[in-house]
Design goal:
It is built from three helices and six strands, in the order H-H-E-E-E-E-E-E-H. The chain has helices spanning 3-8, 16-22, 94-105; strands spanning 39-44, 55-61, 65-71, 74-75, 81-82, 85-88.
Length: 118
């Protein structure tokens, strides 16, 4: 490992404060991220019955943390099908990701594609 890699190694370790942002939704059991590898870190289930959609949160460390929310297709409380979609963030947006993923899974926030009635 080069000196630069040795210096950056701590930046890839999982910190307690970042796990705390996602609370009980944190699912990753590793001790560190691999550079540039998308890793599932949190899951937000849809409460049943409900209008939300389940959300998986992925993190890519470079070493800054970038997040992708994968909103899974689901039916709402009246049986209407809701198509899944992805959202991405810039670096360091863990708290925003937690808030958005929580709101989507609980049915408080969603995406309506253009031309589709709400």
């Amino acid at each position: 490992m080069t000196t630069v890699n040795n210096l950056l190694a701590p930046a890839y370790r999982i910190r307690d404060d970042e796990k705390a942002v996602f609370r009980d939704r944190w699912v990753f059991e590793g001790a560190e991220f691999k550079h540039g590898e998308e890793t599932l870190v949190a899951h937000y289930p849809k409460p049943e019955p409900g209008d939300g959609q389940p959300v998986d949160v992925y993190c890519t460390a470079c070493p800054a943390r970038f997040y992708r929310l994968v909103v899974l297709s689901s039916e709402n409380s009246v049986g209407d099908f809701k198509l899944g979609y992805d959202l991405e963030t810039g670096s360091g947006m863990g708290a925003l990701v937690h808030s958005v993923a929580s709101a989507i899974s609980e049915g408080m926030l969603g995406l309506v594609p253009p031309g589709v009635p709400a």
